[in-house]
Amino acid sequence: MFQLYNKQFPQFNQLWDKYAMLYHRIEVPAKTILLNEGDVSKKAYIIEQGCIRAWFNNKGKDVTFQFFFENEAVSSIESFRRGTPSLYSIETIESCVLYWIHKKDWLNLQNEIYAIPELREQLIDITLNRQLNYMQHFMSFIKHTPKERYLNLVKEKPQIIKRIPQHYIASYLGITSVSLSRIRNAVVK
């Protein structure tokens, strides 16, 4: 699980072995809810295989706002850190192999990571990249038409187009599945 970090920070190989023991491997089928909107998050996940979406209910409609793939971490950060109800649900889209860590173990691990400047910076970068992703997605609704949002998605995140079902992509783009089909047909021509 920590192979990516082993390559990036080989000087900390012993730490990775110690940290790996805190994570629990699970295999879950597609459409498994890992966290319900309104529940307090007590687990954080790393995806070894599969993909996950984060979504919330808006007046009876699912609104997908982020996707996660292999080697990415996912949790309701606000809920996990503050112990508050999650503003969204986390659900598998494909069958997944995941590693999860309980909040109490993460807090201990975090204290050790923060004591090592290189690891602390890496963790901060991951968090900032997630925030940047949210901001870019939000700004695209203000700056771009649905067609432009779709074309940007094709260009910048082709794995979403290849792996995610159409109705989730439409929700992510803020349009209906019918509108997405029209845009795709217009782009292909």
From TrEMBL:
Residues 23-109 form the Cyclic nucleotide-binding domain. It comes from the Bacteria. This is Crp/Fnr family transcriptional regulator.
